[in-house]
Amino acid sequence: MNKKIPLRQCVGCMEMKEKKSMMRVLKTPEGDIVLDTTGKKNGRGAYLCQSMECLKKAQKNKGLERSFKMGLSNEIYAGLEKEFTELDA
Questions:
Q1: pTM passes above 0.85
Q2: What total number of domains does the chain contain?
């Protein structure tokens, strides 16, 4: 039997992709929003494609806000963008 590949939906472009190829954005129990590079941290996760474009789309369509059921400030998005660019480098 084939092993099932876990799929997740990007909150930016709304496409289903393999979990391994995506970034996990995490809302910690304390309410902080961080990038979870390991994919194993505790908290509520939302997934994004590894592209700045999808992060921008998620900001525009409020995908992360819906996932976390809370408003996100521009500073949070700026922080995520910074983390994203550091990962690309």
A1: yes
A2: 1
